[in-house]
Amino acid sequence: xxxxxxxxxxxxxxxxxxxxxxxxxxxxxxxxxxxxxxxxxxxxxxxxxxxxxxxxxxxxxxxxxxxxxxxxxxxxxxxxxxxxxxxxxxxxxxxxxxxxxxxxxxxxxxxxxxxxxxxxxxxxxxxx
Length: 128
Fold this sequence. Notes:
Structural class: alpha/beta
């Protein structure tokens, strides 16, 4: 299980890196769904007038069990049997959902920067 301090450090780093690309007045709320096995899920909601906040939900036995409690359209059926590796991303509406395994490589400052960069449009090359 990823400890709360590690999760919070990641969330703080992600928010700092992301905020550089947001208009003023856009807030970010993160709901954290920790799991005893398999990592955790982070649900970031963005929008105007939203106060930055972090909300920790009850720890579930597995990431699949945690995912079953989150409204989303990417995965259906019996989610208990799902196994996730690395960082998986779901983007729906004003939400970004990260399903992250319990490898410490997925939870550092570098991982937060990489995750933000993956969300941004690719810069097109110069060319003539």
